[in-house]
Amino acid sequence: MASAARFDPVACPRLVVKIGSSLLIEAGAVRRAWLASVVADLAARRAAGQQIVVVSSGAIALGARRLGLEKGGRASLEDAQAAAAVGQVALSAVWEALLSAAGLTMAQVLLTLGDLEDRRRYLNVAATIDRLLALGAVPVLNENDTVATTEIRFGDNDRLAARAAQAAGASGVILLSDVDGLYTANPARDASASLIPIVDRITPEIAAMADGGSGSGLGTGGMAAKIAAARIAAAAGIPLAIADGRIANPLARFAATGHGTVFVAGEGARARKAWLAGRLTVAGTLTIDAGAAAALARGKSLLAAGVTQVAGNFARGDVVAITGPDGTIAHGLAGYDAADADAIKGLRGDVQAAVLGYAPRAAIVHADHLVLL
Ligand SMILES: Nc1ncnc2c1ncn2[C@@H]1O[C@H](COP(=O)(O)OP(=O)(O)O)[C@@H](O)[C@H]1O
Ligand SMILES: N[C@@H](CCC(=O)OP(=O)(O)O)C(=O)O
């Protein structure tokens, strides 16, 4: 099959596998027999020398049942946080039992958005995952929902999986889902929708195919979150697949048939640029004129002369969004803090020193620290 040829989950040395709540949980309990079949797949991949990172949802749904919370624990943020605290223990216990029965050592890694957005913490997470894999453990990741607050949470594990894949230096991501791939429209509502095996580029038409939230009501992000994850992965040069998780041994099946949707990777961006492109939060925004936008498109640095507006309270080195007349076109590391950037906006280099009181830097965002989105 074409998709298998483009993304071979068997050949990929380091793979991230994400499992959604709707697959894992049924009537408030883990679908243990099914999960055992996934673990058998993971053990087979490990025996063949592949390193695996798991991203497992399910804490909120599991905890909600134990606490007797309505709406699967998603009625309020407080409920979700309490449910996650209770459910994560149960979730880990099941993973630990099944992985150890298969001769594998489980490592629990709970992450917040901030852990992957701050470069120093991101590098720390990367080093920890790397070490765990080198030691032969299977990292099982989830969002640390109990402490993550609305503004600083992923909310869906699809994007967490894509960001974690970057941090882990993975060469592929498989999102196991309650659907076998991306369809031209939500197949739950439109019987004539057809599966798209390969997505070369996430165009606005592709993005518009995702409809509504989670199909099952247990999950969070629905198809839109998976497309957002594919976008992050592609920018990092990592192919991402959505594959059918409703069947037993879903990884072995996907490896054998390639049935699903594969989002092929963009050109391999360098690690720093990939990290920049994948940032979900920024500390501020530089609005630029059409001339500067054209220069950026040609790979040039952003000069203060092209900046028309500075928003946010960022420090030098923070990630800022760069917005042209047609919307946000780039992310970059600010060469100045917000106050100095604001002071020199619109000014040519030769007059900046008088305003700043020190010799100006070559650019407000240097091309090496800038990535076009
Ligand atoms: N274009 C589409 N193609 C496939 N599924 C779609 C599409 N648009 C919306 N969906 C819905 O997204 C659901 C998958 O998201 P979700 O239930 O959150 O999965 P998971 O729990 O595996 O993360 C599908 O069951 C389907 O109802
Ligand atoms: N972190 C949450 C899951 C969030 C999530 O993405 O759920 P899903 O859409 O089912 O993959 C939990 O453990 O319940």
Structure write-up:
The protein has helices at 2-6, 21-24, 32-47, 59-67, 77-101, 113-117, 119-134, 157-168, 204-208, 222-235, 250-257, 271-278, 290-297, 338-344, 349-356, and strands spanning 14-19, 25-26, 29-30, 51-56, 105-111, 137-143, 172-177, 198-199, 240-244, 261-263, 284-288, 307-312, 319-324, 327-333, 370-372. The protein folds into 2 domains: 2-274, Acetylglutamate kinase-like (Carbamate kinase); 282-372, PUA domain (Archaeosine Trna-guanine Transglycosylase, Chain: A, domain 4, Roll). Helices cover 40% and strands 20% of the residues. The chain has 15 helices and 15 strands. It is elongated and about 70 Å long. A hairpin with a 2-residue loop joins strand 13 (319-324) and strand 14. It is an alpha/beta fold and 373 residues long. The strands form 3 sheets. An 8-stranded mixed β-sheet has the order 5-6-4-1-7-9-10-8, sandwiched between helices. Strands 12-11-13-14-15 form a 5-stranded mixed β-sheet, with helices on both faces. Bound molecules: adenosine-5'-diphosphate (ADP) and ligand VHF. Adenosine-5'-diphosphate (ADP) binds at residues 20-23, 177-179, 182-183, 185-188, 209-212, 214-216, 219, 221-223.
